[in-house]
Design a protein that fits this description.
Blueprint lengths: L42 H4 L6 E2 L5 E8 L9 E9 L9 E6 L7 H8 L5 H6 E6 L15 H9 L7 H22 L8 H14 L5 E6 L1 H12 L4 E7 L8 H23 L11 H17 L13 H12 L5 H14 L3 H10 L11 H12 L6 H14 L4 H6 L26 E8 L5 H10 L3 E9 L9 H13 L7 E3 L1
Parallel strand pairs: 4-5, 4-6, 6-7, 7-8, 8-9, 9-10
Antiparallel strand pairs: 1-2, 2-3, 3-5
Helix pairs in contact: 6-7, 8-14, 9-10, 10-12
Length: about 500
């Protein structure tokens, strides 16, 4: 899960990953009479047969049908898009490994197409690696609210308002986002939340022929996985939840804590930078932080130049570019170079390139529907403050705790104040009582999903087991740490988790 202006774990997943090690226990096949457990009125959905067809590169694609409203299964239906990379050894195949890259709004289909072969060797051998676009995302009845130019304006809007006029502009843009979604997607907005997406997952589990669910979820994908386990604990075989989100925190507190995570990651980057000869921030950590703050303030007063197109690189876009590079430590050299260009020449081109990756903007000015879907899911999942004045209290709290990111992160969720579809369901702990063991993975200096969330989720779940990485960047498994890969692969194959509290370095 991310703040409304942040992306899924998928931003870094085109990098190579070391392969996993062999598990000792082959696990149990999961495909025996999955339709028998269909909830009342949903037999047609649980019993549907999927028509997989070749879609290039060794992948197979299909669609599945789910009800728009589970309370009215005979009503309107949605078509969900799926992809799979078939198990390499069909004779020892365990079942399907469902995946979700996060967001909300990340395309599970594109995730598997680009990274399916990066999963551990044992997983590729024993499982069909399956991706799906959740409802409202990608090719699954996508929510589309904003045009490219409208999103350009939204993302360039000042998220550190210095006066009432700037706050009014921010409020106007946030209200326009909500109004556009009401005009273009009102019928679907009440139904795109995580509870329904988790119910869809159980339909998909049955449709692929699996009795139990095996799943890897990153970032927001952990939230989706936790909600699956809460609703269907008896159907859990093995869930690996990497870069955990805390389900019991409020909408605004989630953003406040996330801003702290980015501050922690930023300070880790600065601490590394000042020890390197190509660091544009000097050699003193405190002075280096102040230098970045000065750059942000400079861009607020006079945007940086950009050689790619006509967009001015505002303070918000500068901060977005910095944030993207904190998702993966391998991007720190790119960030040093981008900051050098910005500080020495006032050139924000490289920071803008990073910012565009964050929100999936193509050079031609078009966007994926990630931002629209992200807002739609976040705004309906939890209640939000009723007005800007109340909302600002959380902004002020975040700005004190995270000077570099607090205002930016929390103001990013302001459209939810005006959202046309709302929920009254308050957040609460997720226990998944009766579930098989669930593996929760946390990275100590994760920017987007702070480590404390992994600790919290593991303690909430009755069968939660915590696995930790002493490292940087967002999520752990797809960063290639051998210890994390081995523990995760062994668990997903055998359904036996590592020792609770295991720390990988």
């Amino acid at each position: 899960m991310r703040a409304t202006r942040f992306t899924s774990a998928a931003v870094m997943l085109t990098l190579a990953l070391a392969t996993g090690c062999n598990g000792d226990d082959p696990g149990q096949p999961t495909s025996t009479s999955p339709q028998a457990s269909a909830p009342a009125g949903l037999d047609a959905f649980y019993g549907q047969k999927l028509d997989w067809t070749d879609c290039g590169g060794g992948f197979q694609c299909t669609t599945a049908s789910v009800p728009l409203d589970y309370a009215k299964p005979g009503g309107q239906k949605l078509s969900l898009s799926l992809i799979r990379l078939p198990a390499e050894d069909q004779s020892s195949r365990i079942g399907s490994l469902f995946t979700n890259p996060g967001g909300p709004g990340g395309s599970g289909v594109e995730f598997v197409r680009s990274t399916g072969r990066i999963f551990g060797a044992d997983l590729r051998k024993r499982f069909d690696i399956v991706g799906f676009d959740p409802r409202g995302v990608g090719k699954s009845a996508p929510v589309r609210c904003m045009t490219g130019p409208e999103l350009d304006r939204f993302f360039a809007t000042d998220t550190s308002p210095d006066d009432q006029a700037e706050l009014d502009r921010l409020s106007t843009e946030s209200r326009a986002f909500a109004d556009n979604c009401k005009a273009k997607a009102a019928e679907h907005l009440p139904y795109v939340g995580t509870v329904n997406a988790a119910r869809d997952m159980d339909v998909l589990r049955a449709a692929v022929g699996d009795k139990k669910m095996t799943y890897y979820g990153a970032s927001y994908g952990t939230y989706l996985g936790a909600f699956y386990a809460e609703q269907f604990p008896q159907n859990v075989r093995a869930l690996a939840l990497d870069g955990a989100v805390d389900p019991k925190e409020s909408a605004t507190q989630t953003l406040v804590e996330q801003s702290k995570g980015f501050e922690t990651a930023f300070r880790a980057f600065v601490g590394d930078c000042v020890q390197r000869p190509d660091c544009p921030l000097g050699t003193d950590t405190k002075a280096a932080i102040e230098k970045v703050a000065a750059l942000q303030k400079q861009a607020d007063q006079k945007p940086l130049t950009n050689s790619r197109d006509a967009r001015p690189v505002t303070e918000t876009l500068v901060t977005m570019g910095i944030a993207l590079a904190l998702y993966l430590k391998e991007l720190w050299p790119t960030l040093r170079q981008a900051l050098t260009q910005a500080i020495q020449r006032g050139d924000g081109t490289s920071l803008l390139l990073l910012a565009d990756q964050l929100v999936e903007r193509d050079q031609n000015g078009t966007y994926s529907n990630q931002t629209d879907a992200n807002m739609a899911v976040n705004c309906v999942d939890k209640p939000n403050p009723p007005d800007v004045t109340t909302y600002k209290k959380s902004v002020d709290e975040a700005a004190k705790a995270s000077p570099q990111f607090g205002s930016f992160v929390v103001w990013g969720g302001l459209p939810c104040v005006y959202w046309p579809a709302k929920t009254k369901e308050e957040p609460k702990p997720v226990t998944a009582k009766g579930s098989a063991p669930i593996l929760v993975i946390g990275t100590l200096r994760d920017p987007a999903t702070p480590y404390k969330w992994a600790q919290s989720l593991a303690s909430q779940l009755d069968s939660g087991v915590l696995l930790s990485l002493d490292g940087d960047g967002h999520t752990a498994y797809l960063q290639g740490n051998p210890c994390i890969i081995r523990a995760t692969d062994d668990y997903l194959v055998s359904a036996k988790p590592p020792k609770d509290g295991t720390l990988c370095r």
